From TrEMBL:
Gene3D superfamilies xrefs: Ribonuclease Inhibitor
Entry keyword annotation includes Repeat: yes
Keywords associated with the record: Leucine-rich repeat, Repeat
Classification lineage: Eukaryota, Metazoa, Chordata, Craniata, Vertebrata
A GO CC annotation given for this chain: cytoplasm
InterPro entries: LRR_dom_sf, LRRC14/PRAME
Family note: Belongs to the PRAME family. LRRC14 subfamily.
Protein name: Leucine-rich repeat-containing protein 14B
Organism name: Sylvietta virens
Length: 519
């Protein structure tokens, strides 16, 4: 698909394509043309031009989401291009904006917003090298620290110390970049580039380090908090976090696996859960909540009823919900507002079919994303599922991997899915008849890839043909066996792998020691 470009944009491309000439001529360029030239340079990956544009930015704000998004001159949205060349040039240009010896009174820039970048699986930039969220966090922190060292050592223009630019960014902190980010946050007051954390993700961190850095981020500005892999946050730690820190603007909260486990609850734990629910109720902006792989049987009401704002996104996958939990969700005021819902890992047909369909009917007018992986949905339930999904006319994404459905049932379901006008992404299971007879669900990791690949390819072709014949080439259908793409995990998988090996080794050593003592 070719996107139309205006004559202004074509001229801008021609201008920046000769990097040497463009850089020499920037001083003569009208200020209101800088945004146009920035997008053209980004499209053509002209790193040197990007650097100089940012270094000489003449406007009050620099919002990368708006600059790269759809514009009148060029409708193509480039915010999903996390091109390493372009982003590095952008950030080093920002550092050099501060160091540039031009008169401080000419420096109008006050706010830089880097939050509009989207990390996606497929990159279209020529260099094919991406700069993900972790790397952006790393580079900005490094540049802030370097800037301070330089300002202390060099003879700078006195006006440089008067420069104050708020840099809005989504921070991603792991053990590997922790020290660097901490140093940048500690020296925020004396650095002209002031890191303002809008969203914070933490992986592979000890609790002590997590609690320390979260306080440094200025939680009063935080809109999104993700505590994900290998941060051993349990319920008592969450209560301490909410009692000691206020998150007035928090809109989205993701908690790590096993934060809650009601199977070993005491009376004190029940009080703790009530307190956590009340604290979340004080977060009046909270509309997105993810707490997968916790055991929450019978406690959803206690946790969610204090919320004063309806949830738009809820992920309670693999949370061992019972009928009372599902009944609460179906009848709660959240149901009419849910745009994204993940109920994976629950045996929906067996445990609460009618309550689930009641919940689905309540959120059908707004639902955009539905995930029902490993829910034991079988061929006999497909017609019922179609009936439940029919009113969901705004559905854009449907994921149902891991369900024991035959190729015939999948074809029937795909014929219906073609009728959902907004649908863009479908993740479907390997058909049951592609696996050996007698396979049991949920399928364990060892057996996951032991299916007839040739037969699967043939069925996948037929399913895509159904989409093609219905003129639905816009729908992407796939079977990601080991889960959907996660940009953050992809970027830090080496560190994550090393951490898991270390944990396994430590566990093995403890076991050996215990065994030797017994012997």
């Amino acid at each position: 698909r070719t996107t139309m470009k205006s004559l202004r944009f074509i001229s801008a491309e021609a201008f920046v394509s000769n990097a040497e000439l463009a850089r020499k001529s920037l001083g003569a360029v009208a200020h209101d043309l800088f945004p146009l030239l920035f997008k053209a340079s980004y499209l053509l990956e002209q790193g040197e031009v990007i650097h100089d544009l940012v270094e000489n930015w003449p406007l009050f704000d620099f919002n990368i989401g708006k600059l790269l998004g759809a514009t009148v001159d060029y409708q193509e949205d480039l915010t999903h291009r996390t091109c390493s060349v372009c982003l590095e040039s952008c950030l080093t240009g920002l550092r050099d904006y501060v160091l540039n010896r031009s008169s401080p009174c000419l420096k109008k820039l006050r706010v830089v917003d880097l939050t509009g970048i989207k990390d996606v699986e497929v990159q279209f930039c020529k260099c094919k090298k991406t700069m993900g969220r972790w790397a952006r966090t790393q580079l900005l922190s490094k540049l802030c620290s370097e800037l301070l060292v330089y300002l202390q050592q060099a003879e700078c223009n006195p006006g440089t110390f008067g420069i104050s630019i708020n840099v809005l960014i989504d921070l991603f902190v792991t053990e590997r970049n922790y020290e660097l980010v901490v140093q940048a946050l500690l020296k925020k007051c004396s650095c002209p580039l002031k890191i303002c954390c809008v969203a914070f993700r933490s992986d592979n961190l000890t609790l002590q380090k997590f609690f320390y850095i979260i306080k440094l981020t200025d939680p009063s500005l935080l809109r999104k908090l993700e505590i994900v892999h290998n941060v051993h946050l349990e319920m008592e730690h969450l209560e301490i976090l909410f009692n000691s820190i206020h998150f007035p603007l928090l809109m989205s909260l993701t908690l790590p696996a096993r934060t809650f486990n009601v199977r070993r609850f005491t009376a004190t734990d029940e009080e703790m859960l009530t307190n956590i629910g009340e604290k979340m109720g004080e977060m009046t902006q909270l509309t997105e909540l993810s707490m997968s792989f916790s055991i929450l049987t019978g406690r959803i009401q206690k946790l969610l009823s204090p919320l004063k704002t309806p949830l738009k996104m809820l992920d309670v996958s693999n949370c061992s919900l019972n009928h009372a939990d599902m009944a609460f969700l179906a009848n709660s005021f959240h149901a009419n507002h849910l745009e994204a819902l993940d109920l994976s890992g629950h045996d929906i047909p067996e445990l609460y079919p009618s309550t689930f369909f009641k919940l689905l009917s309540h959120c059908s007018s707004v639902l955009r994303s539905l995930t029902l992986e490993d829910c034991n949905i079988q061929d006999t339930q497909v017609n019922m599922l179609i009936l439940g999904l029919s009113p969901c006319q705004k559905l854009q994404e449907f994921k149902f991997i891991g369900n024991p459905l035959s190729s015939q049932a999948l074809k029937h379901l795909f014929t219906f899915l073609c009728e959902l006008p907004m649908l863009k992404n479908v993740e479907f299971p390997v058909p049951r008849d592609c696996y050996p007879i007698g396979i049991t669900y949920p399928i364990d990791d060892a057996s996951l890839c032991r299916f007839d690949h040739q037969k699967y390819e043939s069925v996948a072709e037929e399913l895509n043909l159904i989409l093609l014949q219905a003129n639905r080439e816009d729908v992407k259908a796939s079977t990601p066996l080991f889960g959907s793409y996660d940009a953050a995990v992809q970027e830090t998988n080496n560190e994550l792998g090393a951490y898991l090996i270390k944990s396994f080794k430590e566990t093995l050593e403890k076991f050996t020691t215990s065994f030797n003592k017994m012997s």
